[in-house]
C-alpha cells in the first residue's frame, strides 16, 4: 500500500452528527479505514458499523478485509459505534444501577466488562485475513450441505486456524473434488488424488468422499492432506524444503488440536468407508496427493471415459449389494 504524501486522499467520516476528515492512501482498504478510525476517533473495530457509498453496512471482522475504498469527490463514510471511553462509561453506569437493585448483580456485570476488555482484536483481524475466503461443495453430488459442514469444520479447526495465522496463509477457495474425476486405473492398480493446490493457494481441492459417494473419508487423513496442500502455498516441487515445511505444519496442527481438545471430543469424522494413512507411495505429483502409486502412462492404462464407466459400474454393484443386505442390517 502506497504511503507517499502525494498519494494520500481525504475521506470524510460522519459520526455522532459530526464530520471528521481522515487522510489515507489512494489504495486504502476497509481494514486501513477501520484502523484509522480506531486511532483517530477511538472507536474500537469491534464497535464499528461502517457504511460506505454503494456498499451494505460492514462490521468487523470484515468478510473481505482487502475491500478497496476507491473514494470519489463528495465521498462520505457513515460510522456507527461507541468510543472506548463511552463503552466503558455505559458499562460502569449499568453496573452501578444493577448493584443498587441487586448487590450480587454487580459481580456478574464486572465479569462481563472484564471479558470485553480482554478481546484480542489483533487475533480476530488475523483470523479474518488468514483463512479460506470461500467454501464451496460440489452442488451436483449427494448432500452438498454435509460437504459444506465438513469444509467448515476444516476451516474452523483450531490447529488449521493457528497455522494459517502463523504462516500468513490466505486461500481464495476451499472446495471438494469429484472422486470419479480424480481416480485413474492402469495395469498397476488404481490411484486416487486426495488433494490439489492451484496457483499457490488460489484454490485447494480435497477428496472428501468415498469412491461410491456413500460416505466421507477419515477426518484426520483429510486434514493431513490439507496440511500438505498448504505447504504448496510456499513450495511447488516436492524437495527437502517442501517436506520440512509440510511436516512442520502437520506437527503444529496436531499440537494445537491436542492442546485445545475438550474431554469427550472425538478426533475422527467417520461416515461410511475406511480411513487411510497419509503415505506418499511415490504418488505426489505437481501439488497433487495421489494414493496408490504413480500414474505413469503406459500400454495398460484406461482412458478417463473408461474410468468413469468403471466407477459407475462399481457404484451400481455396491448399491445392489446394499439392497440385498437390508434384511440383515449390514452394509458395505
Structure description:
With 332 residues, the chain is an alpha+beta fold. The chain folds into 2 domains: 1-120, Ubiquitin-like (UB roll) (Roll); 130-328, no CATH class. It has 9 helices and 12 strands. It has helices spanning 30-41, 84-101, 105-117, 121-129, 144-156, 158-167, 219-231, 240-260, 304-324, and strands at residues 8-15, 18-25, 49-51, 58-59, 76-80, 132-136, 171-176, 183-186, 189-198, 203-206, 284-285, 288-291. Strands 6, 7, 8, 9, 10, 11 and 12 form a 7-stranded mixed beta sheet that branches. Strand 11 (284-285) and strand 12 (288-291) form a beta hairpin. Helix 4 (121-129) packs across helix 6 (158-167), helix 6 crosses helix 8 and helix 7 (219-231) crosses helix 8 (240-260). The longest helix is centred in the C-terminal third of the chain and has 21 residues, at 240-260. Residues 262-286, 291-305 and 327-332 have low confidence and may be disordered. One of its GO terms (molecular function) is proteasome binding. It comes from Glarea lozoyensis (strain ATCC 20868 / MF5171).
Amino acid at each position: 500500500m502506497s504511503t507517499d504524501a502525494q498519494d494520500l486522499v481525504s475521506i470524510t467520516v460522519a459520526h455522532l452528527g459530526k464530520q471528521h476528515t481522515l487522510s489515507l492512501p489512494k489504495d486504502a482498504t476497509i481494514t486501513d479505514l477501520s484502523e484509522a478510525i480506531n486511532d483517530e476517533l477511538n472507536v474500537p473495530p469491534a464497535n464499528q458499523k461502517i457504511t460506505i457509498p454503494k456498499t451494505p453496512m460492514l462490521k468487523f471482522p470484515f468478510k473481505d478485509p482487502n475491500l478497496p475504498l476507491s473514494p470519489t469527490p463528495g465521498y462520505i463514510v457513515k460510522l456507527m459505534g461507541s468510543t472506548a471511553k463511552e463503552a466503558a462509561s455505559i458499562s460502569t453506569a449499568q453496573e452501578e444501577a444493577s448493584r443498587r437493585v441487586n448487590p450480587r448483580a454487580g459481580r456478574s456485570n464486572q465479569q462481563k466488562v472484564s471479558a470485553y476488555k480482554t478481546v484480542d482484536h489483533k487475533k480476530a483481524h488475523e483470523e479474518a485475513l488468514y483463512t479460506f475466503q470461500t467454501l464451496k461443495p460440489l452442488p451436483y453430488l449427494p448432500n452438498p450441505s454435509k460437504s459444506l459442514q465438513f469444509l467448515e469444520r476444516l476451516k474452523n479447526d483450531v490447529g488449521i486456524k493457528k497455522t494459517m495465522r502463523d504462516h500468513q496463509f490466505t486461500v481464495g477457495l476451499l472446495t471438494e473434488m469429484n472422486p470419479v474425476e480424480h481416480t485413474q486405473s492402469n495395469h498397476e492398480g488404481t490411484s486416487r488424488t486426495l488433494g490439489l493446490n492451484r496457483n499457490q493457494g488460489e484454490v485447494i481441492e480435497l477428496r472428501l468422499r468415498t469412491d461410491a459417494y456413500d460416505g466421507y473419508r477419515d477426518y484426520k487423513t483429510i486434514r493431513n492432506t490439507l496440511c500438505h496442500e498448504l505447504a504448496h502455498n510456499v513450495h511447488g516441487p516436492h524437495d527437502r524444503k517442501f517436506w520440512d515445511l509440510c511436516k512442520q505444519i502437520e506437527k503444529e496442527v496436531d499440537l494445537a488440536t491436542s492442546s485445545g481438545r475438550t474431554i469427550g471430543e472425538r478426533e475422527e469424522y467417520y461416515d461410511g468407508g475406511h480411513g487411510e494413512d497419509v503415505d506418499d507411495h511415490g504418488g505426489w505429483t505437481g501439488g497433487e496427493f495421489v494414493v496408490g502409486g504413480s500414474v505413469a502412462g503406459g500400454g495398460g492404462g484406461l482412458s478417463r471415459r473408461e474410468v468413469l464407466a468403471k466407477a459407475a459400474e462399481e457404484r451400481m454393484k455396491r448399491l445392489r449389494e446394499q439392497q440385498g443386505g437390508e434384511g440383515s442390517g449390514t452394509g458395505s
